[in-house]
Every structure is written in structure tokens, then in C-alpha cells.
Write a structure and sequence with these properties.
Layout lengths: L1 H15 L24 H10 L1 H4 L14 H15 L10 H16 L6 H4 L11 H21 L12
Helix pairs in contact: 2-7, 5-7
């Protein structure tokens, strides 16, 4: 009985290897944040190693992303991350959303909620572990972008419209 159960589980594991989620691998930079905002090289490097896998349309997949059901779990994380913040689609959003997203970047990085602990578990992405100094670099950059928006656009374009 146990042998049949193990064989059944093995067959299921083999079959699910053929059911793969679509890869998040677009090279379209039409609405990329860097098209509109100044992203210094040091900040860009931090964003690349700590944020971009889940918050852009171009994920760099590790080897284990080809193994099911891990790939499904990763796909869920990437889709959820892009739903909250997508640097590849950033400038396609209204100004008030862009301004709000910079505020969220500050909050999430300051509070240590990003990058997710699950992204840095087991030393899988050691460069993604941000030091306090690196966190400050990212939050200072986001604050500077919010200041740029305040200097450049009318104040009412940077707040969510009131609903009637």
C-alpha cells in the first residue's frame, strides 16, 4: 500500500513538472521608472538586487524556479509584487499614484518589510539583504523623487482625487 502511494506521489510530481507558469521576462521599457526619474547608479544597483525580481516585468529566475510546485509559488510572489509596485509600468500610472508609490517605498523599506524575508531566506539572495545605510539610500532617493514631483507638478495632481 505504501509503495503504491509513493509511486502515485512520484507520478504526480513528474506530471506537474510540465505545468509551468509563464515567465515574467518582458524587455519593454516604455513606461519604466528610469525614463522619467533620476535613478543614480548606486540606488539602481540596490533596486536591481533587492527589488526588481518581484517589482518589474523582468525577473531573473534562480535554478529552482524550474521545479514545480516552487515555480507556482514564485509566480504568485512576482504577480503579487507587481500588483503593488511595478517599476516597469511606473510612469504609465497617474502622477498621484506615482507619488503615493514613492511614499510606500519609503514606508516599506524603512520598516524592513522589503525585501521580503522569504526572498532572502537561506542565503538565496545575499545581496538583497539591505544594510541600514542602503535602506537610507533608497528612502532618501524616494523622498527626493517626491520633492521633484512637488516642484514640478501642481499639488492637486499629486493627491488621490476625491470621490463624490
Amino acid at each position: 500500500m505504501l509503495k503504491k502511494l509513493l509511486i502515485g506521489l512520484l507520478l504526480i510530481l513528474v506530471v506537474i513538472q510540465f505545468i509551468k507558469p509563464d515567465k515574467n521576462e518582458s524587455n519593454d521599457l516604455t513606461y519604466d521608472m528610469a525614463k522619467k526619474y533620476n535613478v543614480p547608479a548606486d540606488v539602481n544597483n540596490l533596486l536591481q538586487v533587492s527589488c526588481n525580481d518581484c517589482h518589474t516585468n523582468k525577473t531573473e529566475y534562480p535554478w529552482y524556479a524550474n521545479v514545480q510546485p516552487v515555480a507556482w509559488w514564485l509566480d504568485h510572489h512576482v504577480q503579487d509584487g507587481k500588483k503593488h509596485l511595478n517599476f516597469s509600468e511606473f510612469t504609465n500610472r497617474p502622477l498621484y499614484v506615482q507619488n503615493h508609490k514613492f511614499d510606500e517605498i519609503i514606508e516599506m523599506v524603512d520598516e524592513g518589510e522589503m525585501p521580503l524575508a522569504s526572498y532572502t531566506y537561506f542565503g538565496l539572495h545575499p545581496k538583497a539583504n539591505l544594510t541600514d545605510e542602503q535602506r537610507t539610500m533608497i528612502t532618501d532617493w524616494a523622498k527626493a523623487q517626491m520633492e521633484y514631483l512637488k516642484r514640478t507638478y501642481p499639488a492637486d495632481s499629486l493627491v488621490f482625487p476625491k470621490r463624490d
